[in-house]
Amino acid sequence: MEAKSSPDLESIGSGTTTKRSSGSRSRIRRDFLTRFTDSERFTENLQDWFGSVSENDKIKPVFEPPFELVELQKFDYALEGVSFQQLTRMPNAVYASTSTSVEANAYLAVEDFLHAAVKSLWEAFWSSREEEPVPFSVGCLFSENLKFYQAEKALALGRLDGLSATGVLLKNPRHPHGKWDHVLELALLRPEVGSRQPSLPVLGEALFYALRVLISRSVSRLDFSQSANCVFVLLVDLQYGGVVKVEGDVSKLDYDVNNVYECAADWIKNHSKISVSPIDRIWNKLGNANWRDIGALQVVFATYHSIVQYFGPPRHSIEDLAADHSSRVHSRRQERQLGDTGLNENGMFRLQQRTMSPEIVEVHEEESSKIEPEPLMKLEVGSVLWLEDSNYQKGYQINQVLTNGTLPYHIASPVDEVGKSVFLYVGSPPSQLEPALEDMNLWYQVQRQTKMLSIMRQRGLSSKYLPQLHGSGRIIHPGQCQKPSSGGRCDHPWCGTPILVTTPVGETVSDMVNEGRFGPEEAIRCCHDCLSALSSSSSAGIRHGDIRPENVVYVTSGVRQPYFVLIGWGHAVLEDRDRPAMNLHFSSTYALQEGKLCAASDAESLIYMLYFCFGDLPNLDSVEGALQWRETSWSKRLIQQKLGDVSTILKAFSDYVDSLCGTPYPLDYGIWLRRLKRNLSEDHGKEIETSG
């Protein structure tokens, strides 16, 4: 088979002539590179060697890791004060496939990851002044001509299929497509890297590129005096990654230009030292880089060593930056008054127990240092609470104390409207200097929901499936109020506490399910009524963002036909900056991925709510697990099948929602409200109101 000519001959040869005595050696090596262009042929010559390595690997690991754990720990300490750029282009393993868009996004993500890594490392360890330009470029390798291109340009030229690696190179405007002796580090993007050890094709390709870099450096005029005989190759997929380190003296390679692949394979077998790190997670399933986890840490550490090879020791050493770790921990311990802050002979804090981390200790707070919380407002059945608005004062008698998750709320009766029931929500006293998470949730339940219901009223939204604002204002606390003005507050801990009152009142879907009173008829009606509420709110540009069984109530008192009302609008999304609630069971896929709502997000959450009303909640403890559950359930049509057992119309609606998930296409509320209404009318002989 005729050898391919090397497309990078000029790249290697131009300006790399050394002393005359070494000219012949350089020419032979460049000729060798001219013919050393096919990674598959090279890998074929390693099959027997790899087979024996794999057999031995069953007994003990053949490839040592390139880094000791203590090195990574010290490097981790050094990076405590280093900020890494927030990545905007990220791989997403949730819907990973062989599709072109997923693969293209992955190359863009790897390029961004490497650029962020080298930029942060350069600024933290080598840069001598602010705004000093980073002397690196990152580009994707095109396998046909072995030249480097910016990922966006390569994709624009339709060269996605030909991309084989991503490289970190020394920046050189004279060579926009890179020179192989300028390559500091390479990353191979390959599917399913996350296994015990790399497969032969993946490892063989990594060794092929590593050897090309080493030979190129040997004929280069660049000074790699720190470690010219070592190169790092990264192996990554959409989630995992690892490091391959190849060391060896390429002067021991037999440069037989008529037998390049066998000679190269012999050098790998007999004259090289190969280290392979454990494969660990770099990106989570949402595509966010776990910069400080060990997977990303060892990749960044390899990048650090790649920079050292050319630029030499950094201005600020790892030891110098890691030394600050002790002082940072010391400061934190003093702030928490942890007592023993002595250092051992290694400069680290003494462990109180052998099994404890240096930073995790049991805190024994002194009684005198405890901060006494302000007295909480206790509203019991029979209590009367008075609300002050700008125009009136109104009293409410507490009839029932309930909870929405962990947040208390009440069913009350206005003292001047006998027989009427309302929902009453009490917020946190404004005297709290540092609101706790519970107080923040109360803020959404009271203040933010008050704002959203007021906006609905101002925009003329009228639907019996939406809650109505009955009253809002501040509590009138016991005793004389000494507030200085209408906008101020006195010293009483309850002064200024916000209150929200809404109608109508009903029992939650959660309670109905727990008591076995949520059947197919209720499910269809619930779907219709919630969809009608969403139709009305979306006409005013408002999305709910927190649909779950606790936020839907069934109204039966004082009505001819019971109906459902969608409550809990505190997390509603009105503007781009608003963020919906995050719920592993009920949030839409797009909300979990992006922190935003798409047009069909509320309908998707409604489907999940109905689905879980007829099945057990899965054990979800992470966003990644929740997304994986969604992907599996939709792809296997488990959701459609479950709802199909309840009603054919719910199965059809879930199919429709599935087709819209994550897209910008709006939901056709009208047609589905008519279908749901017709289904109820035909099956149960009951006419229902449709709004929106």
UniProtKB/TrEMBL annotation:
Biased composition (Low complexity): 11-25
Region (Disordered): 1-26
UniProt cross-references to InterPro entries, sorted A to Z: Kinase-like_dom_sf
Record protein name field: Protein kinase domain-containing protein
Gene3D superfamilies: Transferase(Phosphotransferase) domain 1 (1.10.510.10)
Annotated source species: Brassica cretica
